[in-house]
Amino acid sequence: MASDGIETTIRVWYPDAKSHPQLDPDVPVLFVPGAAVDHGIFALPTIKLNAIEYFTGLGATCLCVTHQVGKTEVAKGGRTIYDARLDIVVALDHIAKRYPPTTKVYIVAHFVGSVALSMGLLDGTIPADRIRGITASSVFMNPKFAKVNMIKRRRQFP
Question: The pTM is what?
Fold first, then answer.
C-alpha cells in the first residue's frame, strides 16, 4: 500500500535452480515498467530469453512493481507519473523487509517508470542510499518529445 492509499502489485522471481550465479545474490533487481504495461514487458514468454529469465539465470532475485500508471484499473482514474513514484518506494520497502538492512537494489526502469524514478529521487521521496545502480531506458529526467507531438501540443494550447 502506497502512502496515498493506492495498492500496488509486486511480482517476484527467484533464481532458477539451474542458474549459474554470476551476480551478487544480495543485490535484488527491481524492474519498473512504463505506462499502461506491467511485468509482462520484462517477462514476455515469446522472447527466447527475456530480461527476467536472463537475470534469474545469473542468480538474481527479480521483482517488478506495477505502478499507478501501469496496466492497472487505478490507472484509468487519472493517476500521474508523479503518483507512480510512491509505488517505487513501496517496492523498495518490500525489499528492505526481506533483505539485510544494508541491502542496495539495482533498478531497471523503462520509459514512464524511469521518469517516476527520477522524480522520486529528485524530490527525496525515493531514498538514493537504497540504490546500488540504475539502468533507465527511453528517458530519465529530461523527456524530449517528438516534433509531431510538439506541433499537436501547440495546436491544442495556442
Answer: 0.89
